[in-house]
Amino acid sequence: MTETRKKITLPYLFKKVEDKQPITWLTCYDYPTAYLQEQAGIEMILVGDSLGMTMLGFDSTLPVKMDDMIRHAQAVRRGAPTAFVVGDMPYMTYQDSVENAIRNAGRFMSEAGCDAIKLEGGAAMANRIKGIVDAGIPAIGHLGLTPQSVSALGGFRLQGKSATLAKKILDDAKALEEAGAFCILLELVPDRLCKLITERAENCIIMSLGSGPDAHGQLLIYHDMFGLYPKFKPKMAKVYGNAGEVILNGLKGYHDEVIGGQFPEKENYFGMPDEEFEELKKMVEGGQLHR
Ligand code: KIV
C-alpha cells in the first residue's frame, strides 16, 4: 500500500495537526515488523526502550543500553524507510547531563538514521530538550507514566488524577514546549487532562498513550496489540489479533510433526541426480574424501 509513500517529515506531521487528522504511532523494534508497519501506513514508529521488557525479557526498561537501542533502531530504519522513526533515550543516557543527552541523541541520528528522539521527564529535563534541539535534533517529551521512574511513581498506574498532580503535568508540558519539544507523549493520564494540554499546545503535537481520544494522535505498544507480551496486558491496550496464539499453535504443530515424522515433506528438501550420487559413492569407497 505504501510502496510509493513519501518520507514522513515534521512539516507533514504539523500539516496533519492543522488539518485535524489524527497521527498514527506504534512501537517497533525489528526489521520484519517495521516492514509490516510501513506497509500498513503507520506514520510514526517509536523504537522504545520498552524493548528491554518486550524483546529482552527484563522486568523493567532500566537495564537497556544505548548500544541495544542503536542496533534495534537500525533494523527498524531498514524495514521502514519512509516512517518517522523516533529513538527512545534509555535510562541514564540523558538524566546526568546536557552533554550526554546531546551526544546520545546524536548517536540515534547518525548511527541509526532516526528522525527524532524521545526522553522522559518534565521541567527538570527542559534543559536537556533545549540542548538537543539547539544541536539540530527534533525532540519529543514524555509525561505522565514515565516507565524509567516507575519506582518513584509507585508502579504502572494512572498519573495526574488529583488537581494538584494534573497541574504539575500541565506545567511540565508547557516547560517542554517552551524548551523546544515539537511533540509530547502523554502516557496514562486522565482524558480531560490530555484534552486540556492538547488545547493549550501552541506549536507542539500532543500524542496519547492510554490518555484518551482528544490528542493529535495515538500511540500503542505493538506487543500489547497482538498478544505478544506474555506477562500482562495493560487496560489501555486494544488487542487487534492474537498473534501469540497463532505462533504458539504453529510451534506445537512443528514439534508434533517432527516427532511424528510428518515433517519434512518432499517439497521441503532437495535431492541430487542419480549419476552424481553414484559418483559420490565411488569416491567414498575409493577413500578420496577429505576428512
Ligand atoms: O519505551 C517505550 O515503548 C515507551 C512507551 C511506553 C511510550 O516509552
Quick overview of this protein structure:
The protein has 291 residues and is an alpha/beta fold. 43% of the residues lie in helices and 13% in strands. The chain has helices at 10-18, 31-39, 51-54, 66-79, 98-112, 126-134, 150-153, 163-179, 191-200, 222-225, 243-260, 274-285; strands at residues 23-27, 44-47, 84-88, 116-120, 139-144, 183-187, 205-209, 217-220.
Q: How would you describe this structure to a colleague?
A:
With 291 residues, the protein is of the alpha/beta class. The chain has one domain (10-220): Phosphoenolpyruvate-binding domains (TIM Barrel), CATH 3.20.20. 43% of the residues lie in helices and 13% in strands. The chain has twelve helices and eight strands. Strands 1-2-3-4-5-6-7-8 form an eight-stranded parallel β-barrel, surrounded by six helices. Helix 2 (31-39) links the parallel strand 1 (23-27) and strand 2. Helix 4 runs parallel beside helix 5, helix 5 packs across helix 6 (126-134) and helix 6 runs parallel beside helix 8. The termini are far apart. The model has no long low-confidence stretch (mean pLDDT 96). The structure holds 3-methyl-2-oxobutanoic acid.
